[in-house]
């Protein structure tokens, strides 16, 4: 008998334990009376998050020309929404350290691929002159979170699904669905729902392999799906996970990602990867 999705959800490490600062930020930002000084105090109250956040901010991940040497400057320059998204990224990477070791997935490699997807989405958003670039990064970072939890919860079954996907040239999420009755995409969406994360992140996780099924946020889901496929072109990710990531040209046009931009996007992502990976994965 294979593992159930409910079993995985019920045995997930305690997200609230590692995300207290994120939750405090979220609550504070719901009030229009919260000042930047109060946001700084919340961040300062968690020494580990404070230190890790400054490491990330002063990596090339944040394209700021000079060193940002204190939290007040960081909050004022980068903005509270983007700071909150960075804290969320740090918290979930910390959470993954509590997962059982598995010979079937390299957690470091998993986060490298996820960071590559987040950076690609962020670069595309930069081309589009979108606001709150970290919201695109966090969307790409978390899109595949279900894969991490599925692989560590059911390593033998997951390994079997990998092998079938390779041998039959079938997208792995389709093999997982046939094997488990659910796949990493659905599991990821339910995990993010359980953690009370925003609905757009849940929909991205659930439909990043099938963006045409997205209901509330189809362009954003398509963007992350496209970014996910692009990461394979720059040397990250696994081919059998990208087999179904063909994107409707209308979505590509909507995001202004013409073929002539692909090389520039890939070049920028590759340039940002080393320092961003170092900053996040040393946490």
Primary descriptors:
283 residues, globular
Protein described:
- This protein has 283 residues and is mostly helical.
- It folds into two domains: 14-98, no CATH class; 100-283, Hypothetical protein af1432 (Orthogonal Bundle).
- Helices cover 68% and strands 0% of the residues.
- The chain contains 17 helices and no strands.
- The protein has helices at 5-10, 15-18, 20-29, 36-44, 47-57, 71-78, 80-96, 107-127, 133-142, 145-153, 155-168, 172-180, 184-194, 199-207, 218-233, 249-254, 259-281.
- The longest helix is centred in the last third of the chain and has 23 residues, at 259-281.
- The two termini are 37 Å apart.
Give a short summary of the structure:
The chain folds into two domains: 85 residues, no CATH class; 184 residues, Hypothetical protein af1432. The protein is built from 17 helices and no strands. The longest helix is centred in the C-terminal third of the chain and has 23 residues.
């Amino acid at each position: 008998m294979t593992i159930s999705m409910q079993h995985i959800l019920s045995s997930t490490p305690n997200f609230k334990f590692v995300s207290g600062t994120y939750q405090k930020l979220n609550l504070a930002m719901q009030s229009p009376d919260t000042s930047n000084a109060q946001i700084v105090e919340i961040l300062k109250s968690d020494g580990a998050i404070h230190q890790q956040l400054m490491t990330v901010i002063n990596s090339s991940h944040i394209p700021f020309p000079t060193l940002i040497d204190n939290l007040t400057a960081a909050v004022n320059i980068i903005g509270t929404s983007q700071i909150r998204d960075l804290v969320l990224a740090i918290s979930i990477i910390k959470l993954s350290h509590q997962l059982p070791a598995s010979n079937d997935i390299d957690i470091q490699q998993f986060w490298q691929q996820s960071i590559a997807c987040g950076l690609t989405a962020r670069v595309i958003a930069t081309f589009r002159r979108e606001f709150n670039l970290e919201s695109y990064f966090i969307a790409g970072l978390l899109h595949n979170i279900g894969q991490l939890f599925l692989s560590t919860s059911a390593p033998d079954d997951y390994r079997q699904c990998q092998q079938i996907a390779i041998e039959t040239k079938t997208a792995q999420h389709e093999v997982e669905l046939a094997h488990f009755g659910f796949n990493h995409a659905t599991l990821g969406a339910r995990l993010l729902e359980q953690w009370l994360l925003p609905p757009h992140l849940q929909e991205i996780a659930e439909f990043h392999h099938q963006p045409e099924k997205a209901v509330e946020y189809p362009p954003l889901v398509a963007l992350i799906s496209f970014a996910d496929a692009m990461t394979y072109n720059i040397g990250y990710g696994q081919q059998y996970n990208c087999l179904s990531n063909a994107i409707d040209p209308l979505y590509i046009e909507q995001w202004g990602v013409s073929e002539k931009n692909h090389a520039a996007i890939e070049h920028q992502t590759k340039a940002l990867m080393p320092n961003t990976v170092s900053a996040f994965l040393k946490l």
